[in-house]
Design goal:
By secondary structure, the chain is mainly α. The chain is built from two helices and no strands. It is elongated, with a radius of gyration of 22 Å.
Length: 121
């Protein structure tokens, strides 16, 4: 069985969910950095290999970019995951504010995110 990037969490209150979303964002950013670095390494290796085997510099660069391009796009998608996690966090905070404004104390979540227990609108 593969090792998980993020361990299972039990979401008991709003802080737990916010920490989970922040963890997803952090994993997305770290994955982007790692995959982007690997794509650059692969591109460089393909360019060198092509030059050593008789390709012109321009053709070697072309093939290096072509081979690495799918990984670069995948790295960009990891950044999108990080951005969506932040959007989810912001919307969840908005949901808590709206719920508290509509019916104070109606949430199943134990609010630990603010000192006063009230959320600022």
């Amino acid at each position: 069985m593969a090792r998980r990037l993020m361990p299972d969490v039990d979401i008991k209150d709003d802080e737990d969910l916010l920490h989970l979303l922040e963890g997803i964002r952090t994993v997305g950013i770290a994955a982007h950095d790692e995959v982007d670095e690997l794509a650059g390494l692969i591109r460089m290796k393909i360019e060198r290999y092509g030059r050593r085997n008789g390709l012109s510099r321009m053709r070697a660069k072309f093939w290096g970019r072509q081979v690495a391009r799918p990984l670069v796009r995948a790295a960009d998608e990891f950044l999108a995951v990080a951005a969506y996690a932040r959007v989810c966090r912001n919307r969840f905070e908005g949901f808590l504010v709206a719920l508290d404004d509509e019916k104070p104390g109606a949430s199943d979540f134990t609010v630990r995110g603010r000192d006063t227990g009230r959320r600022a609108a």
